[in-house]
Amino acid sequence: MIGPVLKVEDLRVSFGGFEAVKGVSFELGARETLALVGESGSGKSATALSILRLIEREGGRITSGAVLLENDGGKTDLRHLREDALTGVRGNQISMVFQEPMTSLNPVLKIGDQVSEVFIRHRGMSKRDALAAAKQGLDEVRIPEPARRLSQYPHELSGGLRQRVMIAMALACRPKVLIADEPTTALDVTTQAEILRLIKSLQDEIGMGVLFITHDMGVVAEIADRVVVLRHGEKVEEAPVEDLFARPQAPYTQRLMAATPKLGEGSTTREAGLETVLSVDNLSTRFAKSKSLFRKADAGTLAVDGVSLTVRKGETLGLVGESGCGKSTLARSILRLIEPESGRVEVSGQLLTGLPPRQLRASRKNVQMVFQDPYASLNPRLSIKALITEPARIHGMVQAREIRDLAASLVSRVGLEEDAIDRFPHQFSGGQRQRLCIARALSVSPKLIIADEAVSALDVSIACQITDLMLDLQQRDGLSFLFISHDIAVVERVSHRIAVMYKGKIVETGSWEDVLRHPKHAYTQKLLAAVPSPDPARRRLLDDRLEHQDIAV
Amino acid sequence: MIGYTLRTLIKMAVTLFVIVSLVFFATRLSGNPVDFVLGVGITEDDKQLLIKYYGLDGSIWTQYWHYLGSILSGEFGLSFLERRPVSAIVAERIGPSLKLIFGTMVFTFCVSIPLGIAAAIYRDRLAGSAIMIIAFLGYAVPAFVLAIVMIMVFSYWLNWLPVVGNSTFSHYIMPTIAMSGMWVAALTRFTRNAMLDVLSQDYMRTARAKGMPERVVILKHGLRNASITLLSVMGLQIAGWIAAGSVVVESIFSWPGIGEMLVRSAIQRDYPVLQFGVLSVAVAVILINAAVDIAYAYADPRIRLAKGT
To answer: By three-state DSSP, how is residue B102 classified?
Structure first.
């Protein structure tokens, strides 16, 4: 380390009576990348927001400690800096990039306005000079056609481009420190790889220290020099990245590493049956644009384009693809929650497409869905007993006096205590809620469960428990899964076969080994190359040869 | 864009037709103007002559048909009482009404938007609560009560402000405040809610992280976004002043505007004036709505660009 530019000493942060950060200390050197790693509730974001004292706006308070910024030989304690001096540091000497590029830019201001105001504020430039500087800034973060972007609005840009705009704003004044708070979490893996490469190369150019906050051990291995592991607001381990991955010291770090799915570890599934449970044949779904009296309806877009796939009894088919490729639309089209345009769907020999509504509802009990957000998927006003037995009651599969017994057996099947049935959703954690969602799906003894990003919102250790539960259920009851995820390493763990979806089409299907070890389609290859590898010795994402290329379908 | 404009125009035409018809039939239900215009002791022959002269003979449907025809040809008729074209009468009164409404608008927006922003920023402090309590009380006071109380205090007791007429600036003070009254309260509330919504957005955090001073964060990044929500409310307010507020307040202060004219013509059964007055108000309200739509699209680029293509 070449002398620290930022020093955090014994930082404590409270939200009301709750202490989120309990005495965390670390140093960040110039040109160094320090990763702050932890699961939800570890205090990593609270720490990041406290450095620029943005935490005060989120309802938090720094109760003790110091945040020291190296300044021409002297040190400034940001904790006691006056507000006007502090705004001179923000975006100038220390900048931040946030997780959600979709909501972090102001929707009603032009990109040029948002980038140039940094130059006007900190460099005292005229509006015209600032716009010229903004254009150059956009060019630096490799945004194509920077001049045209200046007069565009955020909603006209993709997520990846928006995150580049955020980075351009953050780096406008050549800061000494860049704080990146989960900057790639909301992005697809291929876009993530591009953004990580960009941050790294700009770091070398500017010579800044990067404080990188993330929950993703793969990303850590790819970019960090040193790592600080946080848990419940305390530092449990600090080590150079190679040491941490080779010899994790703290038990928590070891558990975290073990729970992180690593691409190439292989599938943990057992042999599947032969009987076909789900058969989808040439299914297409179109999103029509709005029709109106004065405008002819145009063709719209094919979100699902001639998809065929099968799932056998006791089998898990993993469906991978990036956001917008049509995976979720496919899942909904199978159940006819969205009406497909053409094609056939058969569940256990019964044709779903073309069924009249009453019979369609009855046949839906064979296929159940588990969604991504376990918080939004459970009605907060219903007891667990009522929630998880609701599908069974709708389908008339349970008598009123049997409801209690059914609920009790369901919660024990998903590994929860039986007294859970009289409680309410808010009394459960995210992982427990996802168990309840699975219990609800099980209540009608389905043949197939469609899990749409069912573990994506969970911490790795919790996600690991949920996928184990799914594997268990599969072995015991011969349940089939259509497992939809953007996370290829998780898909590898749970799948017998894998289908890769790109722009509405299935571009490749095969056993997990064939698809992941010997990918044939160019898109699959690109996707696999972009997955961070949780091994610092095998870094490859930052290699510039991986620059992005377009793929024909 | 052409389809959108065409659709808007057709909607406006249908709305106008419905209003014009409603006014026509409503006025016919309320008695014969000839009885009102003429005094006692007139002969039956003279009365029939007048009825014919005013075009009030024939069935109600014939009259309706003639009425629609004359509107389409731009003929709005003569006032029964003043024997002047109604368009000339309305033209004289538009000016004072517009001035009053414009004054009210400026006063309301200048008072309630800053108050609403302050109430949002200081929501946890005494100042924020105080603003909201005052706004709540203000909302409970109708315009005519406020007007009468003000006349009592400032004209009758203190003798500071004139009551009748519109010749000087001080004539505007009481009518403006009376008309703003509960709207100030309502808009303060709306502004506060819109700002609270905006304050918790991610882009506000981004603006602070860029080192923008709090003033810029609130006014540039915050208010621009909040204004999208506020525009529709403001449009409703202006329409409300034109259609209803001015009728009450102008009558109380004898303000020589459209509202006072409407009340007078209704009492005197001066059908042509009443009909044309209501038609003008309806057109104004519809135009305001169209203007709000356009302003809305301007404020929110997501709408503007979607419609433009």
So the answer is: helix
